[in-house]
Design brief:
One of its GO terms (biological process) is methylation. It comes from Streptomyces brasiliensis. One of its GO terms (molecular function) is methyltransferase activity. The chain is an alpha/beta fold. It has a single domain, classed as 3-Layer(aba) Sandwich (Rossmann fold). The protein has eight helices and seven strands. The N and C termini lie far apart (about 50 Å).
Length: about 240
């Protein structure tokens, strides 16, 4: 499915009936051949935006998966870059990927809701992982990021404008979230992945409550919608002293 190198429909079904951690362990060898991996166009756009605000010394890729975001960090960090994920399978794939020479690289297995670091980083990025956290978990998640950033450090991640109800994509995402809610109501362990639960307004409010000063930066490569609003933005939240 998706491509000759991608997972089969049966493999995706087995993953969807597993826990999040075990599901990604199963998917890891073929993850980069699915639409679930952050597109290179998004990674490149974020890297370009961060180059203008860096350089940074030490960076962390939160929920790094197979490590696509680590190349973004390597472009803007001079000291070290660290990827953390709770899937051992994803980290195994990430370690085998070729990486350009540059800052020191480390891989850590751990939970984003209980990060095993002190104030060690100047930059934390994350790509495509927030659907795995329920809205009630965001305060704790943002609090963890705040705790591992040095004062003045930046938490950066891209957000895409949601599709309008007149677009097919709106109904696809709505249907996916509805199917996941039904699945989690009747099957254990749960598999948390909701595309429409990460609302920009609520996210900005929670970042402010956590102690971040937040800026929104359009990613011009993705253009604008009919109303003039950007199709994609970079949230850059700075930890206040």
């Amino acid at each position: 499915m998706f491509s000759p190198q991608g997972p089969t429909l049966r493999e995706l079904a087995v993953q969807a009936l597993s826990s999040v951690e075990h599901g990604y362990d199963l998917l890891a060898p073929k993850f980069d051949h699915t639409p679930f991996r952050t597109p290179d166009s998004v990674l490149e756009s974020v890297a370009t935006a961060l180059v203008g605000t860096g350089p940074f010394e030490d960076g962390l890729d939160l929920c790094c998966g197979t490590g696509a975001g680590m190349d973004v960090l390597a472009r803007v960090c001079r000291g070290s870059v660290t990827g953390i994920d709770f899937s051992a399978g994803m980290l195994d794939v990430a370690r085998r990927q070729p990486r350009p020479s540059g800052p020191r690289v480390a891989w850590v297995r751990g939970d984003a809701r209980a990060l095993p670091f002190s104030s060690s980083f100047d930059l934390v990025v994350s790509f495509g992982a927030f659907g795995h956290f329920l809205p009630r978990e965001l305060p704790g998640l943002f609090g963890q990021v705040h705790s591992v950033l040095r004062p003045g450090g930046t938490f950066a991640f891209p957000v895409l404008a949601p599709p309008r109800p007149s677009r097919p994509g709106f109904w696809v995402l709505l249907g996916f979230d509805a199917a996941m809610r039904v699945r989690n109501a009747v099957w254990r362990p749960p598999f948390v992945m909701y595309y429409r639960a990460f609302r920009l307004g609520a996210v900005l409010d929670e970042l402010k409550r956590t102690g971040f000063e937040t800026g929104l930066h359009p990613l011009p490569e993705f253009g604008r919608r009919a109303d003039g609003s950007p199709r994609a933005r970079l949230i850059a939240a700075r930890r206040l002293p």
